[in-house]
Protein 1
Amino acid sequence: MEGQAKTLQETESEVVDEFSMFDEWLDKYEYLIELGKSLAAYPEGSKTDDRLIKGCQSRVWLDYRVSDGRIWFNADSDAIITKGIISLLIRIYSGRTPEEILSSDFSVVDRIGLKENLSPTRANGLVSMIARIKEIAVENSRI
Amino acid sequence: MSATDEIRPFFPALSRKVYGKSLVYFDNAATVQRPQSVIDSWNRITRESNANIHRAVHLLAGEATDAYESSRDAVRDFINAAAREEIIFTSGATASINLVAFSFGEAFVRDGDEVIVSEAEHHSDIVPWQMMCQRKGAVLKVLPVDDTGHLRLDMLDSLITPRTRIVAVAHISNVLGLINPVREIVSRCHSKGVPVLIDGAQGIVHQSVDVQDLDCDFYVFSGHKIFAATGTGVLYGKKEWLERMPPFMTGGEMVGTVRFSGTSFAPLPMKFEAGTQNFAGAATLKPAIETALAFRSGRLRENEEAVKSYLLDKLLNDNRIHLYGVPSSPEEKIPLFSFSVDGAHHEDLALILDKMGIAMRSGQMCAEPLMDRFGVTGMLRASLVAYNTMEEAEYFISSLDKAIKMLV
Ligand SMILES: Cc1ncc(COP(=O)(O)O)c(C=O)c1O
């Protein structure tokens, strides 16, 4: 499978730019909800406990596969705003090599203001989600 | 001027702006906002009368001790306990239940005995009993609720056996908001010789409690839910039980004499108040009780009833919304509404409503077994007290409608 056309950093900037268009928090939520609704389907059978990410009030499942040295993420949540955030993370990190993923400083979440503007419990879930993505990249990198 | 307009200025937090909007505080069942009188009471002790209670002969110690002990009298009056020795100060409802679970368990529970709790209990009224049962080899049994959230009282008699040592049940569940028939539960349990602990964390807030009339053996509540400082709480226990229970924690002024060969303990209530107490906090219970009493009378009461009826009607008659804890009559419910919405996750709703300025609770609400009972991973809860206004309730209903439309 082909990797992404843009570099990880380019996609990060793109996401930050998109979010800077919204002044109102409700508009940011509208956008996240829209993204969440259009997230690719996640197989029910993969909603297993070992794929569940802890630290969220909502449940998040994160799955991945590796092909041609690239990691492809697939994820789901029972909450739609969380799904929107997942969709952003997938857009940035999926289809990358482990090295590309680990070249990110993972500050994009801060830069779009998601962390401080989400409730502390939600921020925890987000932090856990990113930690898991990093972990998967580390596990699959050729050291 | 409306009754709420008169009272709201006494609660500094209510005038806060959040995200540029007026705060609508609908998370009162988690903790209620403090009135200025409570804040002043805390400050007065801390600034002027800060001294360890019960220990020294100097003036400041006398003032602090008086403030602490007169709060005990105020609590005694408030719940009509027979004696002030029956009022034990703790750090909250959770601490009170842990105290009873431990000390009662040590004294009265043996291998093969049984403890009954309801399916609608807060974790704080489940886990301490569970731990005690594990320690003692006892069995925890559960009194279920029906689909409307009412306790299955018809099952109580058959759950009680000669091995039942105690029954613990909420006066009002923090999820369902229904007033449980605790008086009847107590009398049925007593007819079989079983004592009852009532978790009054929510029950104490909206209605009068008379422990002698209820005839319960223990009644517990937290200060922070009835306007007092955090880290305060009450355990009411009948003297006949408290005297036969060993101390939970030891040390400090709770002793009679201490020798390395052994220690005797102070009489009630100090026997259960080990270590330096939260005296600045406990003293705030007195002004807090005055507020609680004012909230249950006159126009404030009327306002609360009107707002409650409005919300009950709106939430019950919206077919997108499932309300948990459906009362047989409005009098049976306090203004506490837990619900879920088809196709909209409770966390999404809570996040959106927060941005609209409305503070609510979402999630499992410390009652996971009850969430399982209703087959949900969480709920959304609006809980009000008499300082909440009809305008806030109307704003909430229209905001909720907008939030649902964003999501579904
Ligand atoms: C019914 C009930 N029981 C017990 C508790 C525990 O109270 P606290 O956390 O103040 O000890 C609460 C508070 O959430 C409650 O609502």
Protein 2
Amino acid sequence: MPILLEMKNIHKVYPNGTAANRGVDLTVHEGEIHALVGENGAGKSTLMKILFGLEAPTDGTIEYKGQTVTFDGPRDAIKQGMGMVHQHFMLAPSLTVSENIVLGDEPKKGVFSMFRDRAKEFKEVEHLISTYGLKVNMQAKVESIPVGQKQRVEILKVLYRGAKLIILDEPTAVLTPQETDELFDSIKALVSQGHTIIFITHKLREVMQISNRITVLRAGKSIATLLTQETNQEEISRLMVGRDVLFRVDKIPAEPKDVVLAVRDLGALDDKGTLALKGVSFTIRGGEVLGIAGVEGNGQTELVEVITGLRKATTGEVRYQDKDLLAASVAEIRRMKVGHVPEDRQTAGASLTSSIAENLILDHYRNPDFKWGPFINKKKVKQFAKVMMDTFDVRAQNEETMAGALSGGNLQKVVVARELSKNPLLLIASQPTRGVDIGAIEFIHREIIKRRDGGAAVMVVSAELSEVMALSDRIIVLYDGEIVALLDNTPDLTEQEIGYYMLGIKKQELEATR
Amino acid sequence: MVWQTIWGQIVDLSLVAVLLRLMTPILLASLGGLISDIGGVINIGLEGLMLMSAFTSIAVGSSTGNWAVGVLAGVATSVLISYGMGFFSLKMKVDIIITGFAVNIFGSGFTIFLMSKIYGMTGNYSPTGAPRIPVVNIPFIEDIPVLGKLLSGHSLMVWIALLSVAFCMFLIYRTPYGVHLRSVGEAPYAAQSLGIPAKRIQYSALAWSGAFAGLAGAFMSNGLTNMFVKDMTAGTGFLALAVVLLGNRNPIGILLGSLIFGLASALATIVQTVPNSPIPSQFIQMIPYVVTIAALVFFALRNKRRLATMP
Ligand SMILES: Nc1ncnc2c1ncn2[C@@H]1O[C@H](COP(=O)(O)OP(=O)(O)OP(=O)(O)O)[C@@H](O)[C@H]1O
Ligand SMILES: [Mg+2]
């Protein structure tokens, strides 16, 4: 296949001094799916921002279709036929799907092209949707559609501008396995219609499944380009991390103690006002991990929000030790040694305009250890932040770096570090390793198990079935707001078995789930 | 006595005329607030802009003897100042709320200063024979009994304000500019990543808010009254911001919100003119503000209920 893109010896130093790329070579062939992998902060997103004209390289050259190009901004890259779907969605929530797709390039009509030509807009978007089979309701407001469809809107946006080379930065991080499969179908359709794809992910299974070639970045340098057929997950991870990675968590059998959390008959509404939890009951003991499996949108989000005080329950009770959590405020709950890793680190987990250190003590600032009279003891905070960044391997310039400048995975590590550092008695972890590289996943998993062994009650919610199975001692499956199964995580429990419950094909007797 | 007077005015439709007149400044100012809010650069300085425009417009209008030149001068001043707000907030990165407050303080102080420097007046300036924004009498229709009173005899600015509602509807929802404006206000990074010049759009949003505030101010000194009184806007600019929220951030909602405010003001005005009214006039003057606060509380409660299930 002919070469479409060659990036040579790319260097990038951010204004704050971070060297994100330190000599990267990337060659992409026409019509291939090229996977870009590497640890959190390895410089993948940076490299792609350079390619797309969002950041200027400090050094290096880009050849596209045989010509050396320099881009002043994304406009130039778009004109050359490139498109990028960013790691975090770039959509205006209150605009409709079709408005978002044509944004900045609206079909116009009238004197001086003053007005929007909405008929043409609909026709063109309709045409795009049917050509690529990316089904989405184009008249709906973006805020009202599920994540999987938002992703499609992003891709349609790029296609509308005639992109031939499409960059997908961690598109699957927020998708359910089902949505991922659909996305892969679309990607294959795109390739068969002559598009080229650069695909960033942390999930090596996906890399093996869909890519043709793989480039591995480590600490800002490209260290290998591999043919997917000739490699395996172990080799890739060794190249990424520089050592062997354990894919399974080593853990001793759980030693459950007293009941820490007892949920009875819990009901709650979702944002639209429909019943999302229909009488859920379970208990978690100290020293055990309860996994919540289920296709996203079956009540997991609401369950977590009710327990952590973010959402009102309509029925039932939640007892934590001897306290009634439903009557407590979020602040009170957090003071009761309840740790919560929220599923959306960008909006609920961190303050993007505060420093890493500030984010790390968000929950501890009342702690006398960090105070000096009524003031915050900066020195102690700094020390603490340094230690946390060290233990959790947060890669950033220093503890004063804005959280917003962190790579996605590193931000997640900050949130997890904060929640684990309060030594919770009850830990609620939603998607604890979303967007985190394999080395860090291993680490976070080990830390969670450590808390369990220290006697904490842990609840893990994850869209990744493998994660739920790796961590949990018992697993409940949520389907349509109800618990349809309570399973002991024995070695002979299979993903397939859980899958049947998740899809609502099988269901245990109600009594068995209590 | 009071009720009879009100009823009488409702029946002979003069209430409508008063209502429309009193609604106009707040409607225009709210539309200005709306556009700036949608663009993500909410203009708190409406009050100050209105004062500046009110003063400029009557000063220029009376010295040239032409109301149109006066109004244009008032609007131009207001637009210029809001561009200045853009310079400080968009380029120098001063918080837009602070810039807005600065404009309010400046507008109040500077108009008083100019009034005493130029005209030697401290409280108000009422030039004799200053031209007013004309009243539109529609031929034939003005002679039809009910319709005539409803449609004819309003100030030109009343019509401009009503047309502005339609204009804003078009601008915000039917033009590419409007879509860009909304996207910049809501997701500036997304807009920028598509090559939309976010800064420029925010400048223009401020300019629009200046233009509408300018019209509102000019009407206050050159139509509603025929003079400039210090701090004559009396909080209209702030009420306008409340109306933006009340109107659910769309032009039609804002028209309804302004009508409520206009009605309250109209009733207050009528009651005040009743001789020997048993109600102290200070209480009556409170009515519009109380209504606004009540409406805002209602709005807040409704929103709270909707958000009750969300974090
Ligand atoms: N705008 C910025 N300013 C300063 N430093 C930045 C900025 N963006 C990224 N960095 C730093 O550059 C390094 C590389 O970040 P980048 O986002 O490219 O990583 P990544 O490989 O995409 O990681 P992830 O898998 O976590 O998304 C990180 O150390 C990050 O903190
Ligand atoms: Mg990234």
